[in-house]
Amino acid sequence: YDSSGKKYPEEFIDEVAYNMGLDAIAEEAEIRFGVVVSRGDIRALPTDEPMYTSRRGGFDTIQYTSAHPTESVALLHESRDGEWGFFQTSTLRGWMRLENVAFGERADVMAVTDDFLVVTGSHVKVYRDSAMKEPFSEVKMGALLRPDGQKKGEGEPWKVFFPEKGPSGELVWVQAYLSPKADVNVGYLPYTRKNIIRQAFKMLGEEYGWGGREGLRDCSLFIKDLFATVGLNLPRNSRLQGVTGDVKASRAEADSYREITKALKSADPGITLLTLNGHVMLHIGDLKGKPYVIHQIFGYKDGRRMKLIKKTAVTGLDLGKRSRAGSFQKRLRSVTRVTIPGERRAEATADKSV
Predict the structure, then answer these.
(1) What span, in angstroms and rounded, lies between the C-alpha atoms of 155 and 139?
(2) Which of the 8 DSSP states describes residue 153?
(3) In which band, very low, low, confident or very high, does the pLDDT at 350 lie, cut at 50, 70 and 90?
(4) What ranges make up the beta strands (E) of the chain?
(5) What tens digit of pLDDT does each residue of 213-244 get?
(6) How far apart are CA 205 and CA 335, in angstroms?
(7) Could you give the C-alpha distances from 184 to 187, 282, 345, in angstroms and in order?
(8) Spatial separation of the C-alpha atoms in residues 64 and 220, rounded to whole Å
(9) Is the predicted pLDDT of residue 263 greater than 60, yes or no?
(10) Helical ranges in the chain per DSSP H
(11) What is the DSSP letter of 27?
(12) Bridge partner list, 28
């Protein structure tokens, strides 16, 4: 259904399918590499039109996520009209408008350096001038920026290289500036419970956005951006996030509710993810025996009615206890401790302070 509650005509579906140009895909694709220069939606189909499973609307089923400035991507295929590309991102594949990407040589796009800044604020503004009068762009939590090689003096703005499109759509790195007080860190943050919880609370109260539309976050994007600040690239969706790391208990593995409850009681606050079907939360500890989480939540069933929250909030797991399905705690599907891969484990800080 479309945004007015009407079924899409077959002609529209046929046009979208034709524009995908699937019959033009060669046996071997010539891959082009690029960097996102402006926020773009990653879609299941090459169209901006939303698709809903109900006349009443709801979530746009073909919205996967959004890509943000400084992200590297690979172009695998173009639409017939030349306006869309089928891209590989760091975690998934989908359609995005080509206008959001500048293309360059692989070595330039995929360059890895030990000298980088990680964005630790929810969003940080980027400027074209050192006086910070001319806005350039905005980067989100977890994004990486390349300093221009000069150490920032006290009170001076950060100088970074930022991607821009040249006259022919080519990738150009230009000098840009961040406020001296910009919420960034030199290198990744140490992976500690304290750091993760502090980062999570920087997004407290922010508006919910399904699939990253309009630069907002949903539950799994909240978790993904949060852990990116310590150098962990988690999957995009909640189901896969729930099986990434040390799975303490999982209904997928036929664990009982009793085992889920036991795992929850011994969970490490700040580095443990709790999942329901289609939802993920960060466990932040217990108060008087009651577990609490911070999560980007759209809403929950309260009795027979839907109660909307639509923001990042701290809640207990008793949400939904008056619904037929039961409380969040009763419906938990997995308890997972997010772990650092072996090659970085020795570098991790074993700090359990909160």
Answers:
(1) 21
(2) P
(3) very low
(4) 32-36, 40-43, 63-67, 72-78, 84-88, 93-97, 101-104, 117-119, 123-127, 135-140, 144-147, 158-165, 171-178, 184-186, 246-250, 272-276, 279-287, 290-302, 305-316, 334-337
(5) 999 999 999 999 999 999 999 999 999 999 99
(6) 25
(7) 9, 22, 23
(8) 11
(9) yes
(10) 10-20, 106-109, 193-201, 219-228, 238-241, 257-265, 342-345
(11) S
(12) none
Q: Is the pTM of this model over 0.85?
A: yes
Q: How confident is the model at residue 257 (pLDDT cuts 50, 70, 90)?
A: confident
CA distance 144 to 133: 23
| 182-187-188-190 Cα dihedral, nearest 10 degrees | -100
Instruction: Judge contact between 115 and 146, C-beta under 8 A.
Output: yes
* Beta strands across the sheet bearing 158-165: 135-140, 123-127, 171-178, 158-165, 144-147, 117-119, 184-186
Q: Which two tokens stand for residue 203?
A: 């997004």
Q: What is the DSSP letter of 87?
A: E
What's the confidence (pLDDT) of residue 344? Answer: 53
Listed residue (84, 178, 80, 92) closest to 131, CA to CA: 178
> Residue 154 has which token pair?
């006290």
> How far, in Å, CA of 88 to CA of 233, rounded?
15
- CA distances to 103, 145, 194, 232, 251 from 42, rounded to whole Å, are 17, 22, 32, 21, 30
d(C-alpha 267, C-alpha 284), whole Å: 9
Residues 29-65 as b/e (b if ≥16 CB within 10 A, e otherwise) read eeebbbbbbbbbbbbebbbeebbbeeeeeebbebbbb
Q: Is the pLDDT of residue 353 over 50?
A: no
